[in-house]
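Page 42, continued from yesterday. The earlier attempt failed because a stray header line got pasted into the input along with the sequence. Redoing it now with the clean sequence only.
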Amino acid sequence: MDINDVRGLGSVFALIAFSGILWWAYGSSRKKRFDDDAHIPFHNNDDGMPLHDDNDRSK
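This time it went through. Structure tokens are written below.
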């Protein structure tokens, strides 16, 4: 086994890992959770005020 075999096995492992990440990220069972998480910045606090106030920026 030489270095080219190790590189080939590394490439195969990287492809399998990448495919697994894609399967996990785009799986239909996680769509609702990701949609809910995407709207977190637009939710309000309990007192009705937005979480972010543009007038309170430090300069």
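Notes: DSSP finds two helices and no strands in the chain.
Reminder to self: strip header lines before submitting.
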